[in-house]
Amino acid sequence: MRRLLVASVLLLSIFICSHAMGQSGTTKAGLRISSQAFGNGGEIPKKFTCDGTNVSPPLRIEGVPSNTRSLALVFDDIDAPRGSYVHWILWNIGPTVTEIKENSVPEGAVQGMNDFKKSFYGGPCPPRRAHKYVFIIYALDRVLDLSSRSTKKDLEQAMEGHIVSWAQLTGVYKRK
């Protein structure tokens, strides 16, 4: 129960901070995440969804703090009926990685289990109305020792107390 409360507070803090800081999504230490495919708060192109080729969009990472040992990425549908639906998680991304290319995973990074019960990217696929999707990049002070069968919950537990900085990129998608 305590872990659920900690995870809920962390997600709420991220949501509140990102809205208070406007479109940049930047947080302490200047960490930033962006995409050339869509702007923060913009529409995620069909190509990156279940209605398209369902490949991950290109992502740019900037301002990684110097004490970062690894990066982790979480891609969530924050408008899902249960509050969150995990579409993609990655960890042990090298701290010098500045770009995650379209439809790729950085060398050495580990993909975990999403809520589709798959260990790869699953694009937006909301059932009825538009949903908001969030890419959150975490700078960590350590490399994580997790199995590729790990879930977002496992990742959050492993990151607890090791987050140096974080930033987010929000996109919206509605099926036509």
Produce the secondary structure layout.
Layout: H1 2-20, E1 32-34, E2 42-43, E3 59-62, E4 70-77, E5 85-93, E6 99-100, E7 110-111, E8 131-140, H2 152-159, E9 163-173
Question: Which consecutive residue ranges, at least 5 long each, have pLDDT under 50?
Answer: 1-26
Mean pLDDT value: 88
Largest sheet: 6 strands, mixed
Please indicate the percent range of residues in DSSP E strands (runs of 2 or more): 25-35%
- The proportion of residues forming helix, as a percent range, comes to 10-25%
Number of strand elements: 9
With strands numbered from the N-terminus, the spatial order across the biggest sheet is 2-9-8-4-5-7
Category by helix and strand content? alpha+beta
Question: How would you describe the shape?
Answer: globular
In DSSP terms (H or I, runs of 4 or more residues), the helix count works out at 2
Rg computed from alpha carbons, rounded to a whole number of angstroms: 15 Å
Order of helices and strands: HEEEEEEEEHE
Can you describe this structure?
- The structure is a single chain.
- This protein is α+β, with helices and mostly antiparallel strands and 176 residues long.
- Helix content is 15%, strand content 29%.
- It has helices at residues 2-20, 152-159; strands spanning 32-34, 42-43, 59-62, 70-77, 85-93, 99-100, 110-111, 131-140, 163-173.
- It has a six-stranded mixed sheet, with helices on one face. Strands 1-3-6 form a three-stranded antiparallel sheet, with no helix packed on it.
- Strand 4 and strand 5 form a beta hairpin.
- The termini are far apart.
